Each structure stands twice: as structure tokens, then as C-alpha cells.
Amino acid sequence: MADDSPASHRRDPIKSSVGNVAAQRRRQNAVTVGKERRESLVRAKRLCRVGATGDGDVPVEESDMITDEEGFLLDAQTSSAVEELKSAVACQGKGAMQKRVNALRELRRLLSKSEFPPVEAALKAGAIPLLVQCLSFGSSDEQLLEAAWCLTNIAAGKPEETKALLPALPLLIAHLGEKSSLPVAEQCAWALGNVAGEGEELRNVLLSQGALPPLARMMLPNKGSTVRTAAWALSNLIKGPDPKAATELIKVDGVLDAILRHLRKAYEELATEVAWVVVYLSALSNFATGILVKSDVLQLLVERLAASNSLQLLIPVLRSLGNLVAGDSHTTSTVLVPGHEITDGVVKVLVKCLKSDHRVLKKEAAWVLSNIAAGSIEHKQCIYSSEAVPLLLRLLSTAPFDIRKEVAYVLGNLCVAPTAGEGKPNLIEEHLVSLVQRGCLSGFIDLVRSADIEAARLGLQFTELVLRGMPNGEGPKLVEQEDGIDAMERYQFHENEDLRNMANGLVDKYFGEDYGIDE
Amino acid sequence: MAMVVDYKHESSFPYWTSVCRRFEPDSPFFSSGNLERELLAKQVALDLTEDERNQLEKMIDNDASRSVFCPIVGCGARLTSLEDFEDHYAARHTASCSVCSRVYPTSRLLSIHVSEAHDSFFQAKVARGYAMYECLVEGCGLKFKNYKGRQQHLVDKHKFPTSFDFFNKAHPSKKKRLKNQQKRRMHKKDEETSSKMEVENETIDGLVSAVSKLSTSDSSPSNISFGRRNARGLTFVPRSIQPPREKK
């Protein structure tokens, strides 16, 4: 809260006033503002500060610092702007339309000035019904644009504020049509994207009101900022958890083709939003995943991963790849066949992600590798002999916890043959021996010591592989050297019964009374 | 032998199986990536500290179980992060006996150890037939007249490993293990009768001085302060300590 730099988007605490009450209010304000700011950062909604057409005459404030006094002033100005609008809307006759546009513009400016627009004041003054009126058919493009812009920013904040847009939804959807001018359609799409980003309930309302088909069509052209906004709005609209929107989207004529086209050729910002659409298509809809896997999309994703260094783009592209691998066995069995060029390409880009500085990329790349390593023996051999293994071994000892867990999955999967029916899976001794010799055991014993149940389980399971599978009965000795016995003995007083039994079982079986006798 | 609880670890150990893992889009697995998306879109990604990021992530991730709690029975302390667990464990669950250096995960267990291993008054009561060996599981409350009885109870009722040996908390060295094996074979018939706990490898002098410096390594208020009822009895240690006897 102490950061006063102009680049920050924080509100300055109260500058004036003295005394205890003021100090208390100051503290409270800081806490609320901090919470408000945090909430606004994580939202899937976006404020429109500069118009879709790049409105030249609006001086966007450099700093977002608003003092309390300035805040009160803004609220007051907003209320009177709404009043202005009210009288403008009631007007008939010649200058009426210009009056309306001016009033709308003024309100829009007030709602675009800062990171925390005076939405509450606007709603209280009764802005919504007026804005809905301004969206009526036959209104000028300028009027529609300004009204949609106001609604966009009203919907960009708190849940109850977004919900206030309900009466406006049918009209916003109507103006997405191909008869509308592009800037108007785009601004309406933006407003709807914010509404969709609020939650499942509003998404369902939008879907039932037919928002999906027109938005999907807006994604088809090659150029224009409209395509990007539409893609973003769609990604919010289909994010579920109900898969039916995703399934519906892939069925729309031309959508698959557009997705592929944009992934192949579009500039990075557009490709990013389209990639997020693919993320949700592949995570939610088996139908969509099936269609995508049979298209060129995997190749395109690999190419993007190889060529780009923009974290914003890499995240959804990597995740799409991951979802397609995880969601459909066809991917690893038929497309990513070991030895084929595309498979090598996939491993290469995953290695690139493992090498990156970004935590998310490392973690999700390891996840994808673990799923490929869950494939056939040839898949495991392919990964085992790649550049990935030395990287993974290093990450297992040095990376943050969540990455280490995913790495553990990869390495363990490399050591175990594909599951074939009941009973314990066979070991791939060559891989196990090599990885253990290269020092992975201590990383797994570390996981045994972790407080995370899943990680501890992985650690114990790998320990079992070592105990069982290392040749010449070396396993127990190696585990003992890494303080594995100690780590397992901790479980005697652990509250999780499964882990207790696992650990106790191993200690009993491999370190019982006869341990170390025959030497 | 009567009750052998064999939890059939052969068949019930959940072996590593290589399977594909899929996550829903709103899974906590994807939280950090989702957060990154929104931060980058608002162009504030670089302005944040690690702490602020963690805070924000907790907001997205509705999964309440993200709070990590210490899993040691009876502890339940909230940990600030998984990375903290090791430190917490070292600070709170490595109570070590200053007499013989054995380490225990709770001060209660340490105190039980001290009574059983270093307290002749305890042994005296055992000799007179009192049920002094308490169950190690907090809340169970049962007490036994001999070590073996308690041991069996732990295995049968609380599924402790059959190799668990409270007295020998530290895993013995190879030499030691061989010695144990030999002794076990030679004195098998004494198993039923022998129930005395002896202090191995302690010189009597060392014991007297060490006992007077008894302390635990964790900072929680210790209930094994030197003012225990049998403390004074320990000054007669030279008489009441048994010479090293056969091991079980």
C-alpha cells in the first residue's frame, strides 16, 4: 500500500484530515481498496479504457490514484451525468439525438477514467434502464457504441454490478449481427464477454438467449480487432463447467477452419485468445477434442510453441496441447507416434518449456510429458532418450514443489510398463536403474517427507519400485543411504491411514528383522 | 502366535501405474496459469511480488484444502506452505532424549520413552505388576504390564508395522543388527519371561549426570520437567540399574 509510483494502479490513502476517526477510516479504506484491487486483478473481465476505434479525444489518465475527495467528486459527477442522460432520453425533436450522444459520451468518459469506475453511483442513479433505451433498434452507431461502452465498464467489476446488465442482454446480443457496424458489434461483444466472465449462471442466460452463434461468426474474418474481442468473449462464454457450449461452438460452420487459420497465421494477441478457446474446447468437450485431434491443430500448436516467446501465448497453447493429449487417447496412439516428426517436435517444444523461467510453463510441460510417458513402451523410450531427462532430474531436486510433483510423475511413468490388466505393472529395469544411478532417488524420498498426500504417495510408490526392481537386491541399501527408512518411519505417527500402511508395509517387507543379514 | 494382523501388503500396496491424468478447466491444477492470464491481460504481471501472487492465487483457487496442516497425529498445526513442513517437523517433531539421543515426533512419546528407558522407579512399578506400558497412540488409554504386550497391541489394534520397536527408535546399524539376530536366536526361550527394559550402552556415571540435565528439544511446555515424582529416586541409580541383560 505504500507504493506511490504513478505506474501503480493503487488508490492513494486519504491525504487530508486528522484525528483518530480519520486514521481509522484511512486504514479501513486501505484494506478495502487492497481487497478490491486484488479481486479486480483476478477477474476474467476487462475494462474498456480506450475505445474499440481508439477514441482520440479521450485523455486517459496516466495515474489511477484517486483520493477519497476525488472519488466523491467522481460519484457526484456520475450521478449528474445520468440525470443529464435521463432528460436527454426524454427529449424529442431535432437536437435530441445529439443531446443523447453527448450525455452518453460524458457518462462513458466518467466510467473509463480509472481502474475503479464509479459504477455504484451510476447504478444507483438508474443508468441501466436509460442505457437499454439507448440500445433500441434504429439508433445511430455513435449512440449504440457509447451505450455499449458504458455497459461494458459497468459489467467489468463486482458480481452484483455485472448482474445488473440482465435487462440489456437481449439487445446487446441483437447488435452482434452482421448488419451492425463493426465497432458497435465489437463493443457489444466486449460487454457480453464481461457478463460471461462473471459466472455459470450468467453464461447460461447468455447461451439460452442465443449469444453463441453470432459471437462465433465474429471470429471468422481474418482481420480486425473485432475478431480478437469475439474470441476472448467466446472463451469466457464456453468455459463451462457444462460442456454443451463448447460442443455447440465447434459445430458452428467455419469455426474449426477459423481456429486453424488463426493459429497458423494470426498475430500473437489474436492467436492467444483463439488458443484459449481451444483450451476450453479441449478441456470440456470430448466431441470437440475428437474433431480437433483429427485436424492439423497439433502441428500448429507445436509450431507456435517453437516460434513464440510470449508467455501470454505460450500458456494457452501449451495447455491446449496438454488437454488434447490427456483428453483423447487417439492423440498419443495415432498422431504422436514415436519416431514420427511431429512427436519429436512435441518433445522438443516441451523441453523448451521445461527450460523456460516460467513456473506455469515448467509445471504444465511436465504434466504433458507425464501423459505421453503414460503411453506405450516406445513412447517411454522416446522420452527417456531425449533431452528431457537430464532437465527433469535437475528439476526434481531444485524446482518448487508443484513442479517437482509433475516431474515425479514423468520419471515414475518412464520406469513402469503400460498397465495390462490386474496385478502389479512390470518394471522397465533399464530406465529405473539408469534414473536411480543418476540420482533421482533422493528427490523421491523428499516427496515421501512432504506434507502433501499426493506427493508422499508418489514418493512411496517410487520407493517401492526401487526396493522391488533394482537388481542384485541393491534397492534396500540405496533407500537406506538416502535416509529412506527414516522418512518412512515418520509415518508411524501420521494421521493418514493409507500412507501409514504403505510405509509400514514397505518397512516390514524390506527392512524387517532379516535386513542386512546376508552380507 | 495369536493374532497376526497381516495387512497383506503384497496385494494391497497401491503400486505405481502409469496412467493419463486429465484435469477439468477449473481444477486447482490450472489456477496459476489462469491467474497469469488475467494479470498479463491487465499488464500488471510484472508489478507483483511473490507474496502478492500467492495471495491472488488463493483467491482463485476455491479448494479450501489448500491450507496445509501438519499430518502428525495430534499436531494439526497450520503450515504457511509445503516448503515449511520440514522446518516445522524439525522444530516440533524431533524431540530428542538428552540421555540417549533417541528422537521422537512428540513430547508425549519422548516422555514415555524417558520413563520406560531411564527411570528405575518405573521399572520398580513394573516389577510389582502394575500396568505401566501405555499405548503410544494418543487417546487410546490402554496400559500393559509388559513391553511385549503393548507392542502386540500396537500391531493388532493400531496397525503398527511388526518391525516397529519403540525402544529401538533409531534404526540399528548393520553390526548391531547382526548382534540382535544372534541374540534373538540364542535367547528365544527367554522372550516370554524377559520384559525388563534395560538401558543399553550407558555407563552408570553417564546416566546419572545425563538424567539430571534432562530436557526436550522442542519449545513447547514440557511435561517431563525434572520435577517428576520419581526424580529423586534416580539418585539411587547405581543400585537400581540392572546390568545389561540379554536383548529380546
UniProtKB/TrEMBL annotation, chain A:
SMART domains named in the record = ARM
From the UniProt entry, list the residue stretches annotated as the region Disordered. Answer: 1-29
Write down the superkingdom of origin: Eukaryota
Which InterPro entries does this one have?
Answer: ARM-like, ARM-type_fold, Armadillo, Importin_alpha
Q: Which GO terms describe its molecular function?
A: nuclear import signal receptor activity
Composition skew (Basic and acidic residues), residue ranges: 1-14
Could you provide one GO biological process annotation from this protein's UniProt record? protein import into nucleus
Keyword terms: Protein transport, Repeat, Transport
Q: Which family does it belong to?
A: Belongs to the importin alpha family.
Supply the PANTHER family for this chain: IMPORTIN ALPHA (PTHR23316)
- Its protein name is Importin subunit alpha
Q: Which organism is it from?
A: Hibiscus trionum
TrEMBL record, chain B:
Q: Which PROSITE patterns match?
A: ZINC_FINGER_C2H2_1
Q: Where is this region: Disordered?
A: 174-201, 214-248
Where is there biased composition of kind Basic residues? 174-187
Name of this protein: C2H2-type domain-containing protein
Show the PANTHER family listed in the entry.
ZINC FINGER PROTEIN 511
* Domain C2H2-type stretches: 97-118, 135-158
Please spell out the taxonomic lineage of the organism that makes this protein. Answer: Eukaryota, Viridiplantae, Streptophyta, Embryophyta, Tracheophyta
| Comp. bias intervals (Basic and acidic residues) | 188-199
InterPro entries per UniProt: ZNF511 (IPR039258), Znf_C2H2_type (IPR013087)
Q: Where is the composition biased (Polar residues)?
A: 214-225
